[in-house]
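Researcher: Here's the sequence for the chain we discussed earlier.
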Amino acid sequence: MKITQLLPFVLILAFGVFLLPSQSLAQDQQEKKVIQLSGIILNADSTDAVPGVNIYVPKKGRGTSSGRFGYFSMPVLEGDSVVFTFIGLKKQTFKVPDKVENDRISLILTMEVDEIALAEIEVMPYPTEEEFKRAVIAMNVVDPMSISRANMSPEMLLRWAESMPASGGENFRYFQQGQMLQNQDLYGPRPLRILDPFAWSQFIRSIKRGDLKSK
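Model: Thanks. This is the structure I predict for it:
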């Protein structure tokens, strides 16, 4: 028999070999019941909820994360191993039973702190101690008292006073003056003192008396 005649049989055999495991896997998954896994994640040393915990089934592409109050809910299959991970806490694994009567499982999971002791690390911006000493000696240090004296100078204080907003007392005084002027305007426009003859007579009498002379 020629090779070209055997080629279709070889292809059919190879296709059957690859198709058989996938069919058996699909059958296994169909036989497993879907379970709704839900629960709350807490700290081991308190009753505080842990939000943002990564919850997933390895190599299955299914996962979720705990919410603001540590609550989570996700579908799993019977026999799945669910992993809980969070930075600074020890990883935990929950094994779903192979046979579950109900279609729901509720958990209250506590996660312990994962303490890792690190060796002491000395961080220096200079490769050697000699270069560090030379840099310290060559450093130009500004006297802090000179900065304080410059900030407390009369010119600087006057500049700050001009830029400061009005105080509560000043705002109240301006408000009272505005209310008084508004009440005066209710009975007509305010007279100009420069056009008041009585004001001019008082001014002339004060000049005659010598009230405006410098003492």
